[in-house]
Specification:
Blueprint (H helix, E strand, L loop, with lengths): L16 H9 L15 H15 L3 H10 L22 E2 L10 E2 L8 H4 L5 H9 L11 H7 L4 E4 L2 E3 L4 E5 L2 E10 L2 E8 L4 E7 L7 H13 L17 E5 L2 E8 L2 E5 L11 E5 L4 E6 L9 E6 L5 E6 L3 E3 L2 H8 L13
Antiparallel strand pairs: 1-2, 3-4, 4-5, 5-6, 6-7, 7-8, 9-10, 10-11, 11-12, 12-13, 13-14, 14-15, 15-16
Helix pairs in contact: 1-2
Length: 343
């Protein structure tokens, strides 16, 4: 088989079932069967040929009739649709090592549609994976879904693989789902088959962050959070917002009568999460945090005349500002420097 550089658009994807089979005939077996997990897009492509042979119709037609139309996925197709070219998000190269981004053309993935060809939206993917939750019989029986969601292999620590499903444990939850990769795009979707909720994130670059797993960790954390009672007359929502310092960004989010300090750009937001207990209309104390996130300190919220937050003081007596104020203070000149007297 030729190398896999069609993934880098160095040449076209195998266009027809015959061309796919020709490439596979030339490929020697890498590992003996059933010895270890090894993800294979060629394997999924072959499954598409099996579907064609068993159904007697092209794979794309089968998927369109038995999945897309059956559950009403209005923005999902088994591969590139030229008539909808203007609707597709532009994909881009990664920025590792500080490289500039470049747009990547959309291509038809030909005989490999079963492995990588779908076009969709986050909403449609959420609808599709909802059909894999227990109790939903639109696509499969619960017996079949449980078999798919049963661990067969462990490709990494704390991760498993079933029958076409990636499996991940977060807290006490066993999540199922899958990632997706296509030149210039990366997706990740996880769902809780028992509690019937789905998180799906699509990114239009090959270095998209793992936002889906981070969101699920936050959901699990918040679901187990003991509610708190704020002081009388104090609305926790008045403390919420996004704030910047010279060192980064954090969000203050009201949840269950208390506040959470969350760094939104980390793959695992629990690594630096802090809980705050509201003490007054303008103060909250950091009551749960790691040793690097100022446990025990009081954060003071300064409100302006419009009753919006102008500044937060806390965390080693440092300040944080809403974005507009931060840009005025730090980005309004060519260099960041200690202010001169009177500024």
């Amino acid at each position: 088989m030729r190398d896999g550089d069609y993934w880098q658009l160095r040449f076209p994807f195998p266009a027809t079932p015959d061309s796919l089979r020709d490439q596979l005939r030339d490929q020697a077996s890498v590992l003996p069967p059933n010895t270890r997990f090894k993800y294979s897009n060629m394997g999924y492509s072959l499954l598409g040929l099996v579907v064609e042979h068993a159904s007697g119709i092209p794979f794309r037609d089968y998927v369109r009739a038995h999945i897309v139309e059956r559950i009403g996925l209005r923005n999902t197709a088994p591969d590139y649709v030229a008539e909808r070219a203007a609707d597709y998000a532009q994909g881009y190269t990664h920025t590792q090592l500080g490289l500039p981004r470049r747009p990547i053309d959309h291509v038809d993935t030909g005989a490999m549609s079963a492995a990588t060809g779908f076009t969709s939206t986050a909403a449609d993917l959420a609808a599709y994976f909802t059909a894999h939750c227990i109790g939903d019989d639109r696509l499969l029986s619960d017996t079949s879904k449980r078999r798919m969601q049963q661990p067969q292999w462990s490709p990494r620590d704390h991760e498993h693989y079933g029958l076409g499903m990636m499996l991940l444990d977060i807290g006490d939850r066993r999540l199922a789902g899958h990632t997706g990769g296509y030149p210039g795009h990366a997706t990740k979707t996880w769902f809780d088959p028992a509690e019937r909720f789905v998180v799906s994130v699509l990114t239009s670059s090959t270095d998209g962050p793992d936002l889906a797993s981070g969101l699920l960790r936050l959901i699990d954390y918040c679901a187990r959070l003991e509610p708190a009672t704020p002081p009388a007359g104090v609305d926790p929502r008045s403390f919420g917002g996004r704030f910047l310092t010279l060192w980064g960004v954090y969000d203050i989010v009201p949840v269950g009568g208390r506040l959470l300090r969350i760094e939104p750009e980390t793959n695992n937001p629990l690594d630096s999460l802090a809980e705050l207990t509201i003490e007054s209309a303008t103060t909250a104390r950091i009551t749960k945090a790691d040793g690097y996130t100022s446990p025990g300190e009081v954060m003071t919220f300064d409100f302006d005349a419009a009753e919006t937050i102008a500044r937060i003081r806390g965390e080693s007596a440092s300040s944080a500002w809403p974005q507009q104020a931060f840009e005025r203070i730090f980005l309004g000149r060519e260099r960041v420097a200690v202010p001169r007297q009177g500024e």
